[in-house]
Amino acid sequence: MATILVSLHFLIIFYVSNIPLAFAQNENQFIYNGFRPAKLHLDGSAQLLSNGLLQLTNIKNISSPQVGHVFYQFPLKFNTTSTGSTLSLSFSTNFVFAIVPEVPSSGGGHGMTFTISPSWNFIHAGGNQYLGLFNSSNDGLPVNHILAIELDTILNPEFGDIDRNHVGIDVNSLNSTELAPAMYFSNKEGKNISLELTSGNPMHLWIDYDEAEELLNVTLAPTRIPKPNWPLMSKHIDLSLYLLESMYVGFSATTGTRAPSDHYILGWSFNKSGQAQSLDVSKLPSLPRQRKTKEIPRLMIMVFLIAVTLVLITITGVAYIIRRKKYEEIREDWEREYGPHRFIYKNLYKATNGFSDKELLGAGGFGKVYRGILPSSNVQIAVKRVSHNSKQGMKEFVAEIISMGRLRHRNLVQLLGYCRRRGELLLVYDYMSNGSLDKFLYSNEKPSLSWFQRFRIIKGVASGLLYLHEEWEQVVLHRDVKASNVLLDAELNGRLGDFGLAKLYDHGTNPQTTHVVGTVGYLAPEIIRTRRATTCTDVFSFGAFMLEVACGKRPVGLQGLTEDIILVDWVFECWRRGAILDASDPRLGGNYVVEEMELVLKLGLLCSHTVPAARPSIRQVMQFLDGNANLPELPDGSTFFGTFKGNEEHDYLLSLPSSSGKGSAASLSSTDSILINGR
């Protein structure tokens, strides 16, 4: 009997001790539109306010750095269990936060994080730049098993920060595996818009992880708009390498005595087994009224302002009028009709550190290009400063502004604005962090691109060229398609740039121009003879570009010490021998999709046909690349790079797929002769 009572007592104790764990296993999702009540664990400076607002740091009467943590009180199952069963790593969460600095618009720090951790005990974690998660001795250690999404408002060079206003993905370390300036994609305007984390305004952050695709998406936006279509960051990462079976989810924040900030969480939704529920913004608690600086009597302010104004008018009045007339920026009628956003010269000067040589990205016939960071938004830009001795002048400058300012395509470099002052011409573009494609193809300083990346770049440039030729309100001839004019963004997507040579023509008219421009090796042979550029000549340049990317060779280059090699002739010879894959870039090491490589090489030859009408239109090129049309067989022997005999050319043209797009193939007289590379 005593034995039975002891066993029963043990079972009761075991059952009671495991109630919280059983309850935690069922708590796979939750939502808080305000935190009253809430199943949360708070420590440090964190506190729950009476209106349901969660405050992580409090700068009221602050005398030392503060650290605040808030975690959901039950652990969640994230990885393979000890019994060997498999758990899904996928999760979804979104929350509304606000960072309110002590002095509005002054910035503050250090920042806050959303954290997944094996414990809520961070007693040994440091404050300030360590964000309450790590310290100098354990930062970067694999045993941390911590995933954090940081909202950082202080520039810490020791952690590789890009600025004082960014979002980062941290794995076991504050050296983020992915960083991006704080901004959001506007679904309405179709572009990224910057956000200031320390604005004091509530903002919404979404974090979604898909275990099947091993993809972590982070999306940021103001609370007044719905979730953007494009995330701020997308990172391929296998979280099974970092997360344990039982993990806690929550937040951490730190602030120092210098430029301190309050950190708030207004609402939080989490789901471990599906999409997290959307927060009801209308039900979220209100933030406290922002603090005001020391009050100064209104009368004193008015007297001070009047006195300062009178002094400034008296001392600088005449000088201001003269200076304004002397340096007044030029504004013409076309700018009001076509001009995009106009930048102030002073801002561009500061952004580029006075157009410092340290910020120089490159130089060409159209001038020098500098990297810059706009002081107002911390957005990186590229500024093209036209040199005074440029052979191209105002006419080309105006053409580029008119065409680029209104073009919108994901594979075109976006023109953000311009500036004209005292004879200086400046264009402001999106900054492409990876520079031009030719540096990856030919420079030993850059890593070699994979075939997947190259094929994606080819299709992207083709899509941008299709937009220029057929999908915009006017036909735009690029006239200089080549690898050095293709820029790569942070994800190595290709974007076609440098529209200084572009010409606009109304659809339905003859899209030709008689001014011969371009680069040797990419110029169609008929330009030399007729001095006319068309959509067909752009296709010819694109054909040379495709061969260049696939082969890793320039269209015209030295072979040995003296002999020139013509790339299209060499690829054609490889095809004629039945070994077209021999033309592929040796740096690929044979790692490519054979069908795609053959398609690109043959399509490059087809676009390089010396008869313009025998070339496919750019729409047909896209059909071939997308696999929506079969590439016709290339003509045998000299009939491709020689003189067609009989009706071979006519039959070849008829073999091309029909297209309603402009620049499609048309039959020619059988007596027309075809030159080889203009010879």
Protein described:
The protein is of the alpha+beta class and 679 residues long. The protein has 15 helices and 29 strands. The strands form seven sheets. Strands 1, 3, 4, 7, 14, 15, 16 and 18 form an eight-stranded antiparallel sheet that branches. Strands 2, 5, 6, 8, 9, 10, 11 and 17 form an eight-stranded antiparallel sheet that branches. A five-stranded antiparallel sheet has the order 19-20-21-23-22, with helices on both faces. α8 packs antiparallel against α10 and α10 packs antiparallel against α12. The C terminus is likely disordered.
Round the Cα radius of gyration to an integer and report it: 31 Å
Structural class: alpha+beta
Most strands sheet: 8 strands, antiparallel
* Poorly predicted parts: 10-26, 504-508, 641-679
Question: If helices are DSSP runs of H or I spanning 4 or more residues, what is the number of helices?
Answer: 15
* Estimated share of beta-strand residues: 15-25%
Termini gap: 110 Å
**Top-tier CATH class of the largest domain:** Mainly Beta
Shape: globular
CATH fold name of the largest domain, please? Answer: Jelly Rolls
What is the CATH architecture annotation of the largest domain? Answer: Sandwich
Helix content: 25-40%
GO molecular function: ATP binding; carbohydrate binding; protein serine/threonine kinase activity
Subcellular location: Cell membrane
Family: Belongs to the leguminous lectin family. In the N-terminal section; belongs to the leguminous lectin family.
Organism: Quercus rubra
